[in-house]
Amino acid sequence: MTTPGAVIVDAAAYAQAVEDAVKASAAYYAGGTSVLDDDAYDRLVRGIAAWEAGHPDQVLPDSPTGKVAGGAVEGDVPHTVAMLSLDNVFSPEEFTAWSASLARRTGHEVERFSVEPKLDGLAIAARYSHGRLRQLITRGDGTAGEDVSHAIGTIEGLPDQLAEPVTVEVRGEVLMTTAQFEQANEVRTAHGGQPFANPRGAAAGTLRAKERTYTVPMTFFGYSLLPLPDTETALAARLGGNAHSELMTQAAAYGVNTTATTAVPGTTADSVEQVLARVREIAALRPDLPFGIDGIVIKADLAADQQAAGSGSRAPRWAIAYKLPAVEKITRLLEVEWNVGRTGVIAPRAVLEPVEIDGATITYATLHNPADITRRDLRLGDHVMVHRAGDVIPRIEAPVAHLRTGDEQPIVFPEVCPRCGAGIDTSEQRWRCAMGRNCHLVAALSYAAGRDQLDIEGLGATRIVQLVDAGLVADLADLFTLTREQLLSLERMGDTSTDNLITAIAAAKAQPLSRVLCALGVRGTGRSMSRRIARHFATMDNIRAADAEAMQQVEGIGTEKAPSIVAELAELTPLINKLAATGVNMTEPGATPPTPAADGPDSSMEQEKAGGPLAGMTVVVTGAMTGVLENLSRNQMNELIERAGGRSSSSVSKKTTLVVAGEGAGSKRAKAEGLGIRLATPDEFATLVADFLK
Ligand SMILES: NC(=O)c1ccc[n+]([C@@H]2O[C@H](COP(=O)([O-])OP(=O)(O)OC[C@H]3O[C@@H](n4cnc5c(N)ncnc54)[C@H](O)[C@@H]3O)[C@@H](O)[C@H]2O)c1
Ligand SMILES: [Zn+2]
């Protein structure tokens, strides 16, 4: 996991490395404009340390080794107690070794650890006097920091006034959530500024910026609470003697935001094994967190253990950072490809100079739409910060604008459809070929015939290409009027496969409306949304009669989506009519149409919910299903949940009531455990919904 250090061959290379590291650090802590990503920086510092170990008499005074912030930052406001950095471990073995060394220092096995996410922002000390926030100070060089009190009032989670009139110092991390970062860059570029490369840099830059004409929000998470010189004696004694976990509870009671409000709250652990189990849990939850973490911080929880272990000049000995692999790397944007999807949407995709992030080689990243490219001010040849966590599709955070050489080229947007040459409809943020779903008919039909839509066995992409090439099919409805002779005329179509396909196509006519609707591929409506629409309206006629306002009654459809769904359904009228004429089912079994008198959203669904065993529940399915559920696709599981009165969802959140966790369930299970959500095995779940299994 640790990348090897840079190899330094002589004193001149060493001096250059020290200079580069100090420069990178200064930029990193000042506003995130470092030319190195963290891996590259850490490699450089390891190289410096290795050379110094062999040449202890030639260590330069500027060397970053052994210093808080690599010695690159200073401050003029002294800290009452040093604000240190943390030492690192990278594996269970290294952590176990560290815990053994800690036990040697304290004279006994540490009884209790606290385990917290390592928030990826910057450290700050907030001084409260009689409950009022008076001063904000950065970590600086550890002994003195910079006064950034001008940021008071712009940091969520750091109240101006505590719940009690106490005099204390709260320390913690200031960061930008992913949403705050997006917003910050939007506001910043709108004001003519360069975008920040990543949330950490954005927080650092924003915190130090004084006279900005605009403010962008940040978020604070407290992780330490200590007395100030004029803190009342009794309170000071209490703060000095309390365990870390108790201090965190106290900070939260004062009204300070802590990790307790997140999906990865700080916890305590009584053994090394428990610590490592929690490390795995937090690592599994990382991709879903709305903010960045770069590791897990493990601390001796009890004050007595902390005092016995003591601190070095750079880091305390009673705490350690268990580093997780970097999820951000700097690479270059080489090209932008424009691909047409099954609905005719023309989606841009970034082609990157291949870069390894957390064990995977990344060559592509999503770019949502042309407006997104413009907003981010991306150019071909730009160095870009690429983010990839878990299985989430890699994304470009922002260009590293100050690395520009002037040779970067603007990204050219297509003027005609790159697939068929037709015009482009640019009226929505996501551009679309004027031919719509006919542009990429094979993709549209393959999707429609797929298992979760019309489920037509024997109609794979190859066959569809044959049908389209032979001119037998020009839209979805044509599938339903194919004759035996037409199919037999195709290459490699024998009697049996023809009969089977004819039967499968005929059977598809009886699919419920939800699947027919899904097969149409209306933009913005996937499987679950199609089911919700079909259940809400019960018939295709009702759906087509709905205006935007009526469409918004369906859960999950807002003011933006509703009009575009209505418009697209109108556009699909000829096709829907044609489908209905061939005998395709246009009703949803078991659903009752909304009555005009019913008020409030989704009343038809509420009525249904009242009946089933999953009434009022939000259910997430993860892992492999077994037993009677073994052959159900994820979509069929979701259909089952909804038949039984529940709501299906694909992501675990506080709103989730039940997680059906099969074999191999990973991060969703871990998250459910972290949130204390009820878990069920596939068998238990099957029993619960037995009446609804068909
Ligand atoms: N890209 C660059 O050019 C560059 C330059 C300098 C440093 N860096 C990176 O910064 C890192 C070193 O920075 P550092 O000295 O700030 O140390 P660090 O970030 O590795 O660890 C110490 C910090 O962790 C933070 N932290 C987060 N959650 C915490 C919690 N729950 N409890 C306690 N502390 C918590 C605190 O701010 C604390 O100061 C390196 O990993 C390096 O890659 C990068
Ligand atoms: Zn096209």
UniProtKB/TrEMBL annotation:
Pfam families in alphabetical order: BRCT, DNA_ligase_aden, HHH_2, OB_DNA_ligase
Coiled coil: none
UniProt binding sites for NAD(+): 38-42, 85-86, 116, 139, 173, 299, 323
Active site (UniProt): 118 (n6-amp-lysine intermediate)
Keywords: DNA damage, DNA repair, DNA replication, Ligase, Magnesium, Manganese, Metal-binding, NAD, Zinc
SMART domains: BRCT, LIGANc
Matching InterPro entries: BRCT_dom, BRCT_dom_sf, DisA/LigA_HHH, DNA_ligase, DNA_ligase_AS, DNAligase_adenylation, DNAligase_N, NA-bd_OB-fold
Family in the record: Belongs to the NAD-dependent DNA ligase family. LigA subfamily.
This protein's name: DNA ligase
Species this chain originates from: Streptomyces lanatus
Record gene name: ligA
